[in-house]
Task: structure prediction
Amino acid sequence: MIFQLIGWLGAAFFVSSYFLLAKGIWKQEEPKYHAFNFFGAVCLMVNALHFSDHANLAVNGVWAGIALMALYKCWTSYFRSRS
Result:
């Protein structure tokens, strides 16, 4: 039951981040958009690991990696602009 809830939480992170982006409320350059994608991917990875869903695990692992790269770019850009 807990792993299903974690999976649904991950889906909620993904859907809400995309909805807020599509509505223009969030921008692609904002760290919160990428953070939601990262946490969504991690939640779905936990769910996939529990249920031995290797394809889902792989896709969300790549998705989490992409989100981390985007977060790194956001943070380095932020600190460069402050110096």
About this structure: The first helix runs from residue 2 to 22. The mean pLDDT is 96. DSSP finds three helices and no strands in the chain. Helices lie at 2-22, 31-50, 54-82.
